Amino acid sequence: MREKEYRSVSAARGGLLFMRGVPGVALGDRVQVRDQRNRRRDGQVIRTSHEVVLIQVFEGTEGLDPERTWVRFLDRPFEVMLSPALLGRIFNGIGQPRDGRPPVIAALQRNVSGAPVNPAVRAYPREFIQTGISTIDGLNSLVRGQKLPIFSGSGLPHNRLIAQIVRQAKLPAEEQSRFAVVFAALGISHDDARFFRESFETSGVLQNVVMFINLADDPPIERLILPRTALTVAEYLAFDLDHHVLVILSDMTHYAEALREVATAKGDVPARKGYPGYLYSDLAEIYERAGRIKGRRGSITMVPVVSMPSDDITHPIPDLTGYITEGQIVLSRELHNQGIYPPVTIPPSLSRLMKDGIGKDYTREDHPRVASQLYASYARALNVRNLASIIGAEELTEHDRRSLAFAEAFERRFVNQGEEEDRAILETLSLAWELLSRLPPEALSRVTEADLARFHRGPSAVDEAP
Amino acid sequence: MGETLDINGPIVTVRLSGVMNGEQIRIGALGLVGEVIGREGDRAVVQVYESTESLRPGEKVEALGHPLAVELGPGLLGQIFDGVQRPLRGLVEQGGDYIARGLSLPPLDRDQAWSFVPSPDLNPGMNLAAGTVLGTVQENPTFSHRILVPPDVEGELIDLAGAGDYTLEQVIARVRDRAGTPRELKLYHRWPVRMPRPYRRRDPAGEPLLTGQRVLDTFFPLLKGGKAAVPGPFGVGKTVVQQQIARWSNVHVVIYVGCGERGNELVDILESFPKLTDPYSGRSLMERTLLVANTSNMPVVAREASIYVGVTLAEYFRDQGYDVVVVADSTSRWAEALREVAGRLGQMPVEEGYPAYLASRLAAFYERAGRVETLAGTTGSITLIGAVSPPGGDFSEPVTSHTKDIIQTFWALSKELADARHYPAVGWADSFSAYVGAAASWWAEHVDPAWAERRAAALGLLTEADELAHIVNLVGPEALSPEQRWVLESASLIREGVLQQSALDPVDSFSSPEKQFVLLDLILEIHDQGRKLIALGVPVQQLLGLPLLGRAQRLKGTYGSDQVPSLRDFVQEIRAAFEPFYRDYGRGEGEPTPRAAPGGSFRRGKRE
What we know:
The structure holds two protein chains of two kinds. Chain A is an alpha/beta fold. Chain A is built from 14 helices and 23 strands. Chain A has an eight-stranded mixed sheet with strand order 9-16-15-17-21-14-22-23, with helices on both faces. In chain A, strand 5 and strand 6 (52-57) form a beta hairpin. Chain A starts with a strand and ends with a helix. Chain B is 35% helix and 24% strand. The interface between A and B is large, with 87 and 81 residues.
């Protein structure tokens, strides 16, 4: 069928249109909906048969009069125009300009749904990215092609942290022109959107940023297609134009909520907390588009923000995200309230790809063991802190008191750092040893004797500690 | 020929009469393949293995006349297949970096010639039973592929090809079946994945599956032919545990089913396994490994199939008389695929949206594990290890709880241990193994008679220490007696020095049974000596300050599995460290000398 317009909407509710008597419509096709006041909306076919066609409308179905609504079937899927001219521009979820400038016209168009990368051609991510943030570089290293989300909560400074990563995670000078950012805003506030824009501007990357914006007061269903549009552009930049692309998706919780809204309207069987059973597969379609491909120079590194409803890490959205992504950086309200920035809480944070991106050839030989030791010593210290809160610090053994002092120093000096403070990895490691030296060598079982001989500052350093 | 009627995600309703449930269907202009999961009148409900985007009502459909089946023959090892056994490397040549839809490619290479050596004792006119070994193909330097009479064929051998090179489609034997029909046999045959392959008899499992991981082999053993589950929330190291098992297990074939997991994890295996050495054959690990991959972004229906594809391939190797381990990561994603299809069909959900048949499907899957006498009369085994990914780490959710009822070994991964970077994060309180008794006789015979006793002692210490830790958390360590303080310290030694084992440490990634035992024995020796000294009045603080303890924790990374004799010599250091206390505090009654050294002369003599 070629483009045809129909007026057979039988029902409109919850962002969905139900149409009768439109034969031969393809699943996933793009439609244009025109309401009684001639306002245009965009939609997509999500179920199709000869009798009934189901359409999700990205702008929602508010104010639609089914009897006076026209639907035009465009007979093609959602596609996005691809050209280097996208850099520096701002679009909405379906790729229409939001910056008042004309649309990008290009010969190359691709279906936003993408296709799965064949696992046989993926290249394993191994190149360490220095973010200049000790808790990430030292303990949860990010590598090119990784997907590492930030699990946050309302009111926590995830946006500032991301802006700092974008500012500091630069490539060597000769590769700087190959650095690009794809920023997908999903239901964020006007203020946050402005903050990002300004921080891209001050860090001088604005000309290499493509923004896809759906703000908090924009229609939520558009959020379902926005990350797909953004990632299609990211794939083009990375694998056609050899860019190293950092994709920021903020906030995926808003995405999942939109998915639930449509699923409920469709009558899908809910699994947990009303989210549909396919939430995992759906999120995976998005997250798995990060990575590297053999024989291609570019890469897609993804840093999604997931705000945990009521700070609950077992909520389906962070939970399923954690099962798909290669680790997570978890922010803590407790650290934030103590004035520690970035409030990265160490025990639940993790980078799965760290093991292959650090060490001898990438950072420094002792890095993996130092990271493991910091984790272990801090975990022990947290237990001591719990104990101290019950029996009082006076009752602790000397070893425990040292442990407690280590935790304090670790949080104040290692975790805490300035928003403008860019620490090189060797600086981070040196700081780590300075802190570990406050503990006696026999308490450090994760490092080797050789590490101790080389980096531990000796018993005098232990004794200086309170 | 029929036509599509309704397209609802991966579920397509078609008008097509005369098809069977389970039959393969080709759909539309793209030629997408799916499987009939329901019939009603002239309508069939089809689940499609690929994305149905752009499919329309009214497209033509065609029944293929057979159920989902796998190709079984030389060329499987070292391969990576998708969830319906399409060769992923071959798809790259056809479709590029992304998996395009509608590609079809035979799983096994039709052009490659294999050197076939017929079994010497077969002659024309002989009666061949199903499963008889027709001959062998040396698939790679380590693996001898046995070519079998398919399980559904038996009869009189008409002729058998001589030694020589044959491609897969060449006939290597002809058999006149019971009905008198000549059947042509080739180097490969096909078998439907949802039908378990037959065997002669099921045997009880007896020999441990050795993974080289101390917490698994020593504390919660699994037997060849057994079933195990590895549940854990995200970030606790499930995948690393699974990969370690795939790397080090003492089996002939490893089948790794990446079911709904990360693409990069499969790449990790694809890149690292060829470089790693099989500790048993000394050859590349990839020569005994095959991968079935349906990553989380690949279509969900093929995910449901991938588990069956993996286990059917395993049965084929089992039928050749080999030990196979199947690692399925993760069975939760398989269950979710089941749930997704059930939901689209409008089936009544029971728990958390899962259909009522979840438990029976899980049980039927795990029952394909086992040690059997094959149709050919040899012994083969399939050990099934399924990862479980409980939402929010809640072990009471349906997939974990149903799985727990079926399996015999449960390696529960703990968030607390993982948060302290204690890996493998297998928690001793929640894990269990029903195979300890059977494993004990093997360890007693092959390693040390004291194994069961030492294992129990260590678990006892860990449990006691956990209880003491509760008290410490309430009132502080000062409230404990010196003996209890020492128990805490010894348990910590066991945790750090034995249970914890880094997959990344080249010295300690694999631990031989001897090393496992000696390490545990040495650390228990420290505990026993310390306990005696405390009874003699030595202040516990003096013992806690001994540098020996730190050294004991690092033993595992100091001595490799080939340095067990040197490891045993550590007992001298233990004696030397404690001797001054004995001098100062006396030996006490009935304790003339320290107990015989671990791995003392009689044991060493016995093994050599």
